[in-house]
Amino acid sequence: MELYDKIVAAVKGSTFDVVLVTGADNFTYMAGAAVPFLALYHDSPVAVVWPKRGDPTIIAPEEWAETIVTLSSVKKTATYSGGVDTFAKAVADALKAKKEARIGVDLLRIPEATLQQLKKLLSGTTWASCDGLIRELRAVKTEEELEALEDVAYRVDHGIFGTQHHVLITSTRSEMSLAEETRVHCLERGLDVIGGQSISQGASGPNASKFWPRAPYYGIGHEKKLKEGEYVRIEARYSIDGYWGTGSRLMTQGYPTAEQREAYNGLVAMREAALAAMKPGAKCSDVYKAMKATAKERGAKLVEGLALGHGIGVADVEAPYLSAKDDTKICPGLALVIRPVVEGPKGELLWSSDTVLVEEDGPRVVGWYKDWRAPYTANYTL
Question: Domain 143-377 - what CATH class?
């Protein structure tokens, strides 16, 4: 109930009489219920109505209600049958006692057509964005959330390492087999391999010069065989009970060359710069600047135009961001992923994602199954 109590306090302290959230990720957060494929059912929307006084209510399709209540910390429900129109009516009925209220709604998530229907059904109410409130709530995690994120980060990292451990330079493994083996290893470690965001990827040699090789074919790897001397990038993104882990690790097919080591050492240096900059009172933009300065000092070929990290929680990518314009203060409870991207010696796009939890005594990297100050080196034989 730690998260539930935190939301109660935040809503009571807000300027809203009631908060309405409709986005799949915001619903997962506010309801405390991880519903598979929720974002894919556009004709079966869900919502949480959270008043300043009284108990929150879940709005859900009739056939889902029992499952959601079983998963959720919110036990009051209102159901509907049909599509988007009946959903709007159900939400309006839950808000009918608040006709003169100031309603905070996640404007970055709610479909415009649904919002207009609600305004017609609830004339006289005042509608305002609560996106800032939700962003702040989600950014600073509870202890339970931090424990969940550390657990999922470790399992994802272990899953990637499990795939790397099976690779031999003399074998004929393909990028597709890397992607599939990573998926299976993650399943074996209890990760939820569900939803449109769950994915594993293998990219090697020239294919690693693109973010998603062979787009638009999902970039999960193709039948290109790994070759000796290549850089190989393996990425996995999976969840447990609605909380996400994202991992990206690099492997060399044989002992790394001096150029390959230099590129990787640039990533390591930027990670260390980020950790050193994550001091109380510093801003995310300060961390970004420290990483950029380190890349310049080392001559690392940093790929421009990207944030160098982001938050993680009930979404695989969420606020805050390690970018030039995000002035979110570094504080205990943040969960961040450090993810700079550099060019390798042959134009490969190289990155190594690290999950960091900010604690009272500073940042702590979590989830490492091995020491990632060096890439994994594939063996010639077992």
Answer: alpha beta
